[in-house]
Write a structure and sequence with these properties.
Elements: E1 15-16, E2 20-24, H1 30-40, H2 43-49, H3 57-75, E3 79-84, E4 94-101, E5 114-119, H4 128-144, E6 163-167, E7 183-187, H5 190-193, E8 211-213, H6 220-223, H7 227-238, E9 259-264, H8 269-280, E10 284-289, H9 294-300, E11 304-307, H10 313-321, E12 325-331, H11 336-348, E13 355-357, E14 372-374, H12 384-396, E15 405-408, H13 415-426, E16 431-434
Parallel strand pairs: 9-10, 9-12, 10-11, 12-13, 13-14, 15-16
Antiparallel strand pairs: 1-2, 2-3, 3-4, 4-5, 6-7, 7-8
Helix pairs in contact: 1-3, 7-8, 10-11
Length: about 450
């Protein structure tokens, strides 16, 4: 094994999320070397990343010593080991890697690092990769000043695209709600159920349960902006594991339940859909956003909107919730900094308020007595009827607004990706960048 020189990270350094522990690689650690050999020789890794020369623990140890530690020293970040938490047990249970890699000029990667991850096949489809990536990016932003990162995807990695819209070519024998030539939007389920039904391919095998007819007034660009956001919001609000609210219906009168919900980050795509779904479930909806988006969120159905940048936002929201029966808080968007005010509100407000987040919860961040969970839907039973009944009825009756609004850039195809990235770096709020294929 390679001899270990002074390590760039202090002993015990780790990045903690709700389910994972992210730590630096150590060349002298036999477990680290053996796991790298195991991971990099799986069929999935070879298919998506290519075959490497790392075939023995000795070679893995040398790679860690010569390449990984060099990245740590030069950029102050690099490739990290991802392990499942084992309660109080400190024994490692490695499941994958997550990395921020930055090249040197004139390589275009020197402009910003790119985020990458790899997970053992048996742990795929459980949200670990996304949780690890979010945790690493948040640490890199707060501790290393990383303001932007690339995300590169091989075209054959069909799991990487979820929002789709298009024309039905053929249906399965058991499908009765759709037929050939129907125009539909859908949420591809590749990230959960396998690459064979991912959206990043010319012809997508979409599950009928997560598809919906597109009304004549709707464009494909509009249909492609919200399927995944709609699904995420539905899980947070209606999944029995999370807020478990009554199902939305066009027959329910707004605010008829006598209960309220707070949605933090409503100018996000998930937040905009959560507002409409909560209102359709009969709840009074409190929202947060910057003042420039207040009126738009009220148009979507928010009863009251708070300026999340205000120093008094938490106190104002706690006071407002004291006048209603709050059923929960949904942190629909944002980094770790947006989780803390949600937890503070739940801690200070009356009642037992459940906080559901889209951001991994940092170990030790949840106040005693507060229940909090990160939303992840690997079982969809609680939301199927929302896709099959509520959404098509609401769209065709024009009682569900397309949100966020698509911002279709002029440049089409792959050439438009850089233009879209440039727009995102300047800041986008209440819109989703759309690049047309052709």
């Amino acid at each position: 094994m390679a001899s270990e020189s002074a390590h760039p990270f202090p002993p015990g350094f780790n990045i903690s999320t709700s389910r994972l522990r992210i730590i630096p690689f150590h060349p002298a650690n036999q477990t680290h070397a053996e796991f790298l050999v195991q991971l990099w020789n799986t069929e999935d890794f070879i298919n998506f990343c290519g075959r490497t020369s790392i075939s023995t623990p000795e070679k893995a140890s040398n790679f860690i010593q010569q390449r990984v530690l060099q990245q740590y020293s030069v950029n102050k970040y690099g490739m990290f080991l991802v392990s499942l938490k084992e309660g109080e047990n400190t024994t490692l249970s490695p499941i994958g890697t997550v990395s921020l890699m930055k090249g040197a000029s004139p390589d275009p990667h020197f402009l910003a690092p790119d985020i990458g991850f790899a997970v053992l096949p048996e742990h795929s489809g459980k949200g670990y990769a996304a949780e690890a990536a979010k945790g690493l990016l948040e640490w890199a932003r707060t501790d290393r000043g990383v303001e932007a990162a690339f995300g590169f995807c091989d075209p054959s990695n069909r799991r990487s695209r979820e929002d789709i819209s298009g024309t039905v070519i053929e249906t399965g024998h058991s499908v009765t709600r759709f037929k050939a030539n129907d125009l539909v939007l859908a949420s591809a389920q590749g990230a959960i159920r396998g690459a064979h039904i991912g959206g990043f391919q010319e012809y997508v095998v979409a599950e009928a349960s997560f598809a919906c007819l597109i009304p004549k007034y709707m464009k494909f660009s509009e249909g492609a902006v919200f399927p995944l956001c709609f699904t995420t919001a539905s899980h947070a609000l209606f999944n029995s594991k999370f807020l478990a609210l009554p199902k939305p219906s066009l027959d329910i009168r707004p605010e008829s339940s006598g209960k309220s919900v707070l949605i933090w980050g409503d100018a996000s795509a998930v937040g905009m859909n959560a507002i409409q779904l909560a209102r359709a479930a009969g709840l009074e909806v409190y929202a947060t956003a910057s003042p420039r988006n207040f009126e738009y969120l009220k148009k979507l159905g928010a009863n009251r909107v708070f300026d999340y940048t205000s120093e008094t936002a938490v106190a104002e929201i706690v006071a407002a919730l004291g006048k209603s029966a709050c059923t929960g808080i949904f942190q629909a968007a944002g980094a770790e900094a947006s989780v803390k005010p949600c937890l503070d509100i739940a801690d200070r407000a009356d009642g037992n308020i459940f906080v559901v987040t889209t951001t991994p919860l940092v170990e030790g961040s949840v106040p005693e007595g507060v229940r909090a969970e990160m939303v992840f839907g690997n079982k969809h039973d609680d939301i199927l009827e929302i896709w099959e009944k509520f959404l098509p009825q609401a769209l065709f009756q024009k009682k569900y607004l397309i949100a966020p609004e698509p911002a279709v850039i002029e440049q089409k195809g792959l050439e438009g990706i850089q233009e879209g990235f440039n727009i995102l770096r300047k800041g986008v709020s209440a819109k989703k960048i759309v690049v047309a294929a052709d």
